[in-house]
Amino acid sequence: MIIIFNILLIGMAALIAYWWATQGLLSALLHLVCVIAAGTLAFAFWEPLAIAMMSGGTFDNYAWGVSLIGTFTISLLVLRVISDKIAFGNTQFPDIVNLAAGGVAGIFSGVLTVGICVISMGFIHSTTDIMGYQGIGRDGSNNSIVTNVGGQLIIPFTRLTNDFFGMLSVGAFRPDISGTPLLHYNPKIDELSCLVRDSINNGKGQLALLPDAASVTKVRMSENGLIVMQVHFNAEALDFGGQLCLSSSQVRLIGKASGQKTPQVIYPVRWEQETQNDGQNVYNFDAVSHYASSVPARKTADITFVFEADNTFIPRFLQIRGTRLDVPSTDSVALAETDIERYTGKIVSAEDIRGGRPVMGYPLDNIVLITERLGKLTLSTNGLPSSIVVEDAYFIEGKLVRKWTSPGVSGKLRVKGVRNDEGAKVVQIDVSRNSAASIFDLIPVVGVNAEIALIDNDHNKYWPIGYYLDTGGKMDLTLSPGSPIRTIGELPPLPTSGAIKMTLIFQITEGQTIRELMLGDITVGTCNKYIKRPVDDI
Fold this sequence. Notes:
The chain is built from 11 helices and 26 strands.
């Protein structure tokens, strides 16, 4: 579907460009001026109009998108009528000039028009993705905000539109009266239009927030950039009158900026809330299944969001579901040492971690698997993307993100797994947080540059040639046999909740016996796994 979506958008932009190229240079330039002026008016009045439309009902989840596209469409229509009345004739240029220069003006008009339309679509209540397009989203393995989630636009219409009108807002079209340029007060709208839809149940949660439904009540900061912000939510903030549920991508803190610089935008890494049975607790935003929420059946909630920034960051606004909330002064309010420890998580010393483990590690015979098959994968070789190389129904190298199972896959077309090199066998080890071979809890001891290796009976080392993540419904595979993974820092981090599983993939020489898994100078675990040779079965 993402391919079809891209074709539709490119076709729409190309049609606009072609139409104005055939209408002449002057007409194309006039239309481009109208598009720029209409876009400027749309982004100028978009926010106040959207807030004015909100009443606490279902329409609130459409107000942001309707306000932007409606203001743009009406402004463009009025400006086109005025321009046609003023410039009722057309200046004659050579055909080549009309087609070339008029086409360039038409391309700019098409890109900006499509960009505004897609941004508007992002602010209308829908699913997390639109025809496969999600754009900006949370990484399933570590919850960081990334740019390669759920399909991308071949031509970055939204980013180009955001950058252009942001530049105008601090340039030729800077608002001298209000002094609130778009770039400083609502930066990165292209990202925001994707992230507000990243709500519970694949986008079925609420998308908008009434300005009076929440307020920042307390702010504390540490010298090293830790920012703790308490927000009070009332009944109007609850998802459709039920329970408040907020993902980390629906909450962003905007820093102060000046001149033509884009302000820094950061997202919470933890939150503190009251739960029904456990009282007040701090939780990590380190999995896509983690949401800050209110106590069921309670009509108000006080949730504390924790941000990590550099010590030069000065918060200006907190933005929740697109609505800006003022931040109280932080000049004289600092975090106490006990609060810093609470909101950064309990610090466990390297000595405690090392002392709590057996010197020879844990027994791993049950989790060291000699097989080329990948978990519960049932996938056809047909329709695989170019990001993964497949030969004779075996994966060789590349990246692949797919659902674990596909219906109706015939045996002849089924992917068999990872290819063995001649004289070697594929070995897999589950290194997830709840596994005996868990390696991520050892990072405070060994550091991110610690070497990962399987050791055989002759003390040969074997590094992972890849890994796959099990995110529940999907497999995220990375294979790079030509450049093995040497250190733990080359692997994506895993959430502390254990919701994401990771399996490392090795190739071990036939005839050898695997003895231990090492991480730096620590023995993670030991085993006695013999890698059979073909002659062993004769």
